[in-house]
Design a protein that fits this description.
The chain is α+β, with helices and mostly antiparallel strands. The protein is built from 18 helices and 21 strands. Helix content is 30%, strand content 20%. Strands 11, 12, 13, 14, 15, 16 and 17 form a seven-stranded mixed β-sheet that branches. Strands 1-10-9-8 form a four-stranded mixed β-sheet, with helices on one face. The radius of gyration is 24 Å and the shape is globular. The protein starts with a strand and ends in a 5-residue tail after the last strand.
């Protein structure tokens, strides 16, 4: 193929409503296109299927105007009704989509997601999201969402061809059946080997697509992946290389690295004793020496993490954490919980999806917990599909996890752990946490009931100071500024509950986005250039295939 890259694990699906991982995202956003797409140089949302849009003065109503030349790969026009169908399908409780909560900001969407059409009969008809005509899509929000346009390019909001789904059921996305509207078509999918994508001649922007073909390799073994890159068989190797070779690779001119908007953490199954006791969970978090992992295993400048939100979120100040590395405090908590020296705690398992780096980290942490707390801990792996099934079914004690921010806002890391959220997978929930996250989603309304906010806040004095300016007479601009500040404070208070009181997750480190990319690959930006000319890190390590071109020697 013109461009070849290693994608890690085998995608579990190419159905936008059901996927939840980076391997699926890289393929889906090539086969489908949303209302907006990401510009390769800036990663800002730019027109996709929607050629233009307007937003009401109150930020609640978005009206998108679709391109007349947007087509599905079978020649049908892409209509506003296709988006209505896809978004209703994502939210339909029968779909069971892990990312359904992504659209809960739409008017009536939460009720529809919980009870279907019986609970919200007008949703998708003339409420929330609807199509007054084939080329106009109207979206109504419950409250302004500062990152809404970023959602419209995310894989969960991509359009889905209703006729293909109804004709082929849960296998509609396989070669020969799938119908897409993006810059590429799915030509073949050899499980355990590769996915072949080819340029879509019917795509509205086909003339702007620089590749005729792309091979997406499903490969998880770091040494094999690196050998393929070094032998010239692949053009891009994102982060999948033996960690012991970092010191050698980082000096190569084709190696890139920079801050990543990604957190590596462990989920704890709070339904299984003794992990149902927050003191035990905190003790585990305090007995882990993160610096040993970042400095001796990873060695690429990763940052030890005691919170869930990575650095780089505009305006956000992380809270004080109840985690860190304090063996004495960890042992005291374990004794207080009735397990002095680890006595009485059965063997615990650390589940990780098959990957050499995850194995190394799990074994280091298992050893630390044995030495520091006297716990018996076994690290074990499962292939990706089994790992996903086990974590969703809460069939684990401790499970490795990672989360890449879906948009540049703390909420993308914090709304994961609302009670029963699709990606929670810990069994944990707390009403105060849920209330703070909900308040942050509609801060103007929530500010009208300060007593409820203060009752939920773990640090009410700080929150009271954020609420105080709203009692004054303010200009609309100043009030909007204060509401933005209050929103970030509500999210900070929620994170406080997560990492200083509840401990359903144990953050380990914040990633560095890194990889190897062959000279001659154009349109690949490891550093972004923003509209004002400033430079910024590509925190998500996103590289839209639409904009990549390859110049090979001799061609």
């Amino acid at each position: 193929a013109d461009f070849r890259f290693v994608n890690g694990t085998e995608p579990k699906t190419l159905d936008p409503s059901l996927m939840n991982g980076e391997p699926e995202m890289r393929v889906a956003t090539a086969i489908f296109e949303g209302l907006t797409r990401r510009d390769a140089k800036t990663l800002r949302p730019v027109p996709g299927v929607a050629e233009s849009w307007e937003v009401s003065d109150d930020g609640l109503t978005w009206t998108f105007h679709l391109r007349p030349d947007a087509r599905w790969s079978d020649g049908r026009p892409v209509t506003a009704g296709d988006f209505v169908y896809a978004w209703r399908r994502l939210l339909d409780p029968a779909t069971g989509a892990e990312y359904a909560y992504f659209l809960h900001g739409l008017e009536g969407a939460r009720a529809y997601n919980r009870g279907g059409a019986a609970a919200a009969p007008r949703f998708g008809v003339d409420r929330g999201v609807f199509a007054p005509d084939p080329r106009t899509l109207v979206v109504e929000l419950e409250a302004p969402v500062p990152y809404f346009l970023e959602l419209t390019s995310f894989f969960s909001t991509l359009p889905v061809p209703r006729w293909a789904v109804e004709a082929h059921g849960d296998r509609w996305f396989l070669p020969g059946r799938i119908v897409g509207n993006g810059p590429f078509l799915l030509e073949s999918w050899r499980v355990g080997d590769r996915i072949r994508l080819v340029r879509n001649p019917g795509y509205w922007g086909a003339d702007e697509v620089g590749l005729e073909s792309v091979d997406v390799l499903s490969l998880e073994h770091p040494t094999t992946a690196l050998n393929l890159y070094l032998s010239g068989e692949i053009d891009w190797l994102p982060s999948l290389y033996p960690p012991e070779l970092v010191d050698v690779l980082r000096d190569r001119p084709d190696f890139y690295s920079g801050p990543g908007m990604i957190v590596y953490f462990y989920r704890l199954n709070v339904n299984r004793p003794p992990l149902d006791d927050p003191r035990v969970r905190q003790a585990i978090g305090l007995a882990i020496d993160r610096r040993e992992i970042t400095d001796e295993v990873l060695r690429l400048g990763q940052i030890p993490a005691v919170g869930m939100v990575p650095p780089g979120m505009p305006g956000y100040a992380p809270p004080e954490s109840g985690l860190g590395f304090d063996v004495e405090r960890a042992r005291a908590l374990l004794a207080e919980a009735g397990f002095p020296g680890g006595t009485g705690i059965p063997e615990l398992g650390i589940l990780y999806n098959t990957h050499e780096l995850h194995r190394q980290i799990a074994e280091v942490i298992a050893d630390q917990l044995r030495r520091n707390l006297g716990l018996r801990v076994r690290a074990y792996n499962q292939e990706w599909q089994s790992y996903i099934a086990s974590t969703r079914a809460l069939d684990y004690d401790i499970a490795r996890a990672g989360w890449t921010g879906d948009y540049l806002d703390p909420n993308t890391f914090l709304d994961l752990f609302v009670t029963d959220a699709g990606n929670n997978n810990t069994g944990w929930g707390e009403p105060d946490y849920d209330a703070l996250i909900a308040a942050a989603s509609n801060v103007a309304r929530a500010s009208g009931d300060p007593a409820a906010l203060l009752a939920a806040a773990p640090d009410p004095d700080v929150l009271r100071a954020s609420l105080a300016p709203l009692r004054d007479e303010l200009t609309p601009e100043r009030r909007a500024e204060q509401l933005r500040a209050l929103r970030l404070e509500l999210l900070r208070q929620a994170e406080t509950i997560l990492v200083a009181r509840g401990f359903p997750v144990i953050p380990i480190y914040f990633y560095v986005a890194s990889g190897l990319v062959r000279p001659g690959v154009e349109g690949f930006h490891s550093e972004l250039t923003l509209p004002d000319g400033s430079r910024a890190a590509n925190l998500q390590d996103l590289h839209p295939l639409r904009d990549i071109r390859v110049e090979r020697p001799g061609h």
